[in-house]
Amino acid sequence: MVTAVGIAGTAHAVPPPPPNPSDAELQQGRVDVDSKAGEVGKLTNQLTQAETKLLELSAEVQLKMEDANKAQVDLDEAEAAALAAKREADGAKAEADAAGRAIEEVRKQVDAFASSSYQQGSTVGSIRALMGVRSADELLERLRMLDAASGSQLTALDNMHRARTDKANKDSLARKALEVAKSKEDAAETAKRTADTARNAAVSARAGQERRAEQLENERSSVERQLEEARNRVGGLQNQRRSFENWQEAKRREEAELARQAAEAAAAAASEERRRTGGAASGGGNRGTVQKPTRVAGSGAVQIVINRALSQLGVIYAWGGGNGSGPTRGIRDGGVADAFGDYRKIGFDCSGLMIYAFAGVGINLAHYSGYQYNSGRKVPLSQMQPGDMLFWAHSGGRIHHVAMYIGGGRMVEAPFSGARVRVTSVRYGGIMPYATRLL
């Protein structure tokens, strides 16, 4: 007797196969990714150079602004000196004019006296003054009085001539001083115009460089988006390939399961047949093993610091802004930051961003990049690790900027007025040879 045995179907049938991209499509996608990545790298280098130039021009603008401020101070002082000299000259001229008028008045009196006195150099008074005398003593007394009056007027006239000469000399010196002061004022005005022209040229050059950097940043952002799209396309194709491979594996498992069920059904039928005929059969099986997944550990203090810095991406730069609690209003610097209105903005400057980042792990930093450079252990740049601070200095060794290294040749920073907190490639132009490690 023959018994028919059916084969049960699988609990979950494998669906139809998903798309399977060709190897050529995958290879072309990888080529596109490599091409876009190369463009990003090229633009990143150009942007780094442009931003380095921008920092140099910013420093030049500050110097030119200081020159313009000095020229303005010199001009103010020269104008004040010229005004004082003019007042002095006007006063001296007025005194000389008054002395001249007084002399003319005395001269008129002397001329009148002389016309009524005797001639040939004598100071004896006129006959009219001697008329009516009653004695020789009275005559002598009147002659003495006339002589005294004549001598007094002549002495007064002589004194006034000397006074007018002194005042005329004073007037001449005052006018000479006015000429010198006016000459210095003209020179100061010329220096002020020259300084203003140089400052305006520096500001214009910086603005042009800033536009160039912004253009490169936009170009890089566009290519980075294209790179991301290319990666997504490749990732999509790779996901499709993995999905197809997973489908193939599921299909193989399904076929193997069907084959196993068929074999079990055949064995059961054979066993039943042997039982009927007195035979016996035995079988065996396999036990699979299950591996436990590896658990990933926490990120630690370094990651906390990095995450806090990265949480502020896009926040506006504000000179003097930022503390342990977040962005704050900027302050005036009397130069570039004021031109960008940083004192009206809520944001971070470079050292303020570091203060906020490290406050997350209880580290307090001073709001000055020079002090931050000396706040921890120095490590060579070749040994820098994520969470280390990087610093840049002018040729004189004075530190002017700080950023945080986050790994992979990248850093997070609050760059300069007009920009925002960002992630960018490490710039090596002007960088200090050591990083500062606090963790």
Automatic annotation (TrEMBL):
Q: Which organism is it from?
A: Allokutzneria multivorans
In this chain, composition skew of type Basic and acidic residues spans 180-196, 208-225
- Cite the entry's keywords alphabetically: Coiled coil, Hydrolase, Protease, Thiol protease
**Coiled-coil region list:** 40-109
Family that this chain belongs to: Belongs to the peptidase C40 family.
Which Pfam families does UniProt cross-reference here?
NLPC_P60 (PF00877)
Every copy of the NlpC/P60 domain together lies at 299-439
Name the UniProt record assigns to this protein: NlpC/P60 family protein
